[in-house]
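Hi R.,

Here's the chain you asked about this morning:
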Amino acid sequence: MLILAAATVIVAYLLGSINFAVIFANMFLKKDVRKYGSGNAGTTNVMRVAGLLPGILTFVFDALKGLLACFAGKVIFNYIFVTSGLEWANPVYGAYLCGVACMIGHVFPIFFQFKGGKGVATSVGIFAICCPKAIIIGLAVFALCVLISRIVSLSSLVAAVTVITLSMVFYSRGALLWPQAVLSISMGVIIFLKHSENIKRLISGSESKLNIRRHKKNG
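And the predicted structure, written out as tokens:
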């Protein structure tokens, strides 16, 4: 069972390593998005470099991989706990654990020279399984912040703090709080560390605002 648990976490990491920003930017523009714009392999940079459609596809598929990793983690760890006679252990632990592994894969993808995105879109899928209430409110906060500031990085950070905080408020009552809190906070730390340059620009007032690339029609 230990081997099955380890294999599930490894698969979650590998799933996270599928970087859809690189895939869709290359599909639409035949370019590596990491060499253009901000250099980040994420939704916002894909929108800026390749356009709205590939950006939306990037967000959707990055979120889906987080959702799939956590769903698989929840199902498989539930099987492991029941089979091992650990009915008291909540499968949400497996969901969170696979969520962290998936996010690490997204940020440091083995398939793309360990240079990935910042984990925001992936976290949407992760918390859709781990704490649905938190992510619903977090998405609303993100949308409101974008409408007001038009700064995606600021909106992402505010939403991340909101989701992490609410994940501890709406934690799974059938499981201990501290393992959920530790794993949830660790994902928040990853997001903030990956936004370190954005934070510096926000402080200096030089952070760029959202500007989606629009392709000009011929004629």
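DSSP finds ten helices and no strands in the chain.

Let me know if you need anything else.
M.
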